[in-house]
Amino acid sequence: MAELQRFHVGARLSEMAVHNGTVYLAGQVPDDTTQDIRGQTAQVLAMIDRLLAEAGSDKTCILMTQIFLTDISEIGAMNEVWDAWVPAGHTPPRATVQAPLANPGYKIEVVVTAAQR
Length: 117
What we know:
The protein has 2 helices and 6 strands.
């Protein structure tokens, strides 16, 4: 059986797990909830970059992304940040939905699955 690694393990969840060359990130949320959707999106994408690098991957290896927005009318502003971040030719399959999030200050949560390099 392939080794299972967990990173940043807490009492409730791990931030990331790697198994059989696949990287699974927990839902990433912003640290600074005073930011607008653009700021919160940039924070979350930077967290994803750091976690993927730690696992030996990067955003060109993303296999699937799920994006949760508390207000779907902000998808245009979120997409501006997303489009500037994701490399051309490496846009992953993606789902974006409106959903209430655990902290009322969160405007976005992003879940990523990626391949290791």
